[in-house]
Amino acid sequence: MRRTYLGEFEEVVLLMVAILDGEGYGVTVSQALEEHTGRIVTFGTVHNTLIRLEEKGFVTSELGGGTTERGGRRKRLFRVTALGSKALQEIQQLRQELWGMIPPKIVQLSGQ
Amino acid sequence: MNPRPVEPPRWADRLLEAFLAPHLLEDVQGDLHEVFYKRVDEVGATKARREYGWAAVQYVSPFFFKAFRRGPSPGIHESVEYVQLPFFHPDMIRNYLTVARRNLVRNKSYTTLNVFGLALSMACSILIFMMVSYHLSFDRFHANADRIYRIVTGTGAANALSSAGVYVPMGRVFRDEYTFAEKTGRVATNYGTTISIPGTRSTNKFREAIAFAEPEFLEIMSFPFVQGRPAALAEPDRVVITEAIGQKLFGDQNPVGKTIRLDNRMDVTVTGVLQNIPANTDRREEIYVSFANLKPYNDWFHEENWTGISGNMQCFVLLKPTVPVAEAEKAFTAISQKYIKDATERKNVFRLQPIADIHFNLNYDGRMDKTNLWALSLIGLLLIVTACVNFVNLATAQALKRAKEIGIRKVLGSERAQLFWQFIAETGIIAVFAMLVAVGVAYLLMPLLNQLFQIDLSIMINYQLVGFLVALTILVTLLSGSYPGLILAGFQPILALKGKLSQKHVGGFSIRRVLVVGQLAISQILIIGTIVITSQMRFSQQSDLGFNKNSVVLLPMPVQEAAKMSTLKSQFMQLPGVENVSFCMQAPASQAVNMTSVRFDNRDKDEDFLIRTKDADEAYMPTFDLKLVAGRNILHSDTTREFVINETAVKALGIKSPQEALGKILITSKGRRRGPIVGVMKDFFNNSFRGAIDPICLRANLGEYGNCAVKINLQSRRETLTSLEKIWNTSFPEFIYSYQFVDDQVAQFYALDELILKLIQFFAIIAISISCLGLFGMISFMAAQKTKEIGIRKALGAGVESIVWLFSKEFIQLTGIAVLVATPIAWWAMHRWLQDFVYKIGIEWWMFALSGTVALSIVLLTVSYQSVKAALVNPVKSLRSE
Questions:
Q1: Which of B541, B568, B596 is nearest to B709 (CA)?
Q2: Worst-scoring range by mean pLDDT, A1-5, A33-37, B71-75?
Q3: Cβ–Cβ gap B58/A42 under 8 Å
Q4: Which domains does chain A have, with CATH numbers?
């Protein structure tokens, strides 16, 4: 059975959710995205991705408190699941291996 | 605190509520709001609102409808047993469409009636839209069209016309002495120049309008060059022609470098070729000659001429972007003060007319009245309303049939809004169908319309038209669907399921009565309009204009030499069918107008009005059957020695009676032409009926006789015309023969009115047809409803006529009310239209009576077919089931 695929953008969003550690919801995730990666994406995309991640089981969500500036609407806070962190680790590991196969001089890591 | 807190746009929130699955709504909207308020502080409310709207639109996608499963294991969140589907959910839409399709297929006749009616009115609207946008697009294609102006003259004299032209030097002075304009270009048009190619056979000649233009004129206007550039006209003896003219003269050869001869006396070399002139401009000249050739061609147009204005000498300017119009107009006053010596001429005021106004401003030879366009648009809207009324009537009548469906939907939890929108969606399907049919019909009608209008419209798919089609479809859908939709959505489920709903639950007939009255009233207004306009046209064409217009033919006189003219005249007079021949400048009624200053007797200054001049020989009065009321006709002379004036001129000069005017001296054209008044002629109509009769003087003036008026005997009309042509062609071999009857020329006054009349007739017929369709649908429905009632009545001994009366009674009432509603509106509209005319018919009661009768008979015809059919049914058949 193929393991659930994690798209590139999905991966980045998942990382943001991990970084935010339980404080991640639509607004903070897109801010973090902009801040850390310089990507500016529409809200629709972020929400869309978060829902997909949840469907794939990489994150869970629960409704948190509302604030006045949201008109009293509750936030949906996301957390990385065990499956999600496993997927991230696998990808990271795979990359390490691939990096190791590149002959020197082709791609010089900075600082060497 | 802020009285009005900043809020995100309402529509965007509505959109989210409609499209998002309910369990997603809260947090998504919350996120969006949070960011919105942050952005308000950062970039201001407007920008934040725009961003919010944009973000909200992103959610309109199937993805957000679903997402029921939140994660792999339900139960992490509130488990969802039944979630109400959002309204625009694809599954729901599919359901609406299925139901709609079934309904439409089930009631084929009803569907076709609706589609057909709507399509007819939509087709008319499409045509009207195209026509209106065609006219509004005139001269807007030029680059910088918003800065291009024409200098026009409003004369200061009392009864003067305004003119689209200016003094010859005006443009030059404005260019040399002022810096308001980026470019100033003069252009002088001569209509009817004979064009030939030197050294070729004399048959290869054409009659064309030519324009003498400065290079800057072609720089201001966006008439693209195929070869050459505007500077091609900087030198004398040059000409720039369009591709079409090049094709006509030289076939497929390159025209550049070739020579063209104008009026057999001036040769010019082609140095540039223009693309063909687009249809939506009134500058139709296709031959532009160097401006330097203007004076040699016609020495009236010399650079010192500050004493006369010709409408053919026009000047265009491209103002600098920062210059206000009023500022530039002040320059003209200063120029007048500086250069114009004459007191009367100094009264002229000059204005800048925006180029977009040229097509519409009738004071300056515009071609189209904007009021007509608005009237047409209104008629289009009325037609749409008429068709929508049909729809509403039929749909509400049909509503009862669907009671069961509605009841079930309500029991299963449909909301009113959902049912309403569902019905709107059904209407939308019909509207889209109708639109497709309408586009087809419009496409087929296009050639007819083009022929009518002498224009060249084609269905060009541009975003404007597409936008219009979409907007029209939406408008029709909402107009037609709203009321029946509300009725349907408002059914009480219990009653609906028990089948206990009756007519009274669908608003009875009251609303429908109002609608039918409105519909009939619209048709009434159009019928009355047709009657009034037709009467006025007939009045203006059949009234005695005070001169003979039916048997006089005008021939052009390209060369005016006394010897040649007398030869020609004697040759013409020898023909048996010719009764008289006169050389003259123009017919008694003509769109070409010549005016000059006038001074009477020994008064010390010119009168404050300008007198219209009719320059002609002594045969003018007998040829046109003009009557004298005092004195005698002028005697033969080549120059002005004496005058005949009309009765209006006598009054304008303040003379008590025609007799007193005789023998008094009249001085015209700034003292150049003077002589005694020897006769007073009876007034004749020298304008269309829109303008009052002007003061006129008749005077001899050889050299101004551009026309030869021949009075012929209509019995032998054909032979005479052939002989005239022969003689003319032998006298002027280098020129092109043409002729026009004076009554045709007079009819030209009313060309635009004729057009409007044709259109209104056409639309009246359409409106009536649509109303008939609707009435037919209604009566059919009523007949179906009342089958049992009729059966019982017949069984109890009612006759056919009483049954027919039962049906007709109602419609006769409605028609009567419609007449009452339509009469004041139509009266007002027609009164407005007639106000333009100085000589007009009165609006009389019989016109309204006639249109009422017409409408009533049409209504009864429509109704009788169905009602007779219903009345003839055997009651056994209709009552058997009970």
A1: B568
A2: B71-75
A3: yes
A4: 8-65+73-101 (1.10.10.10)
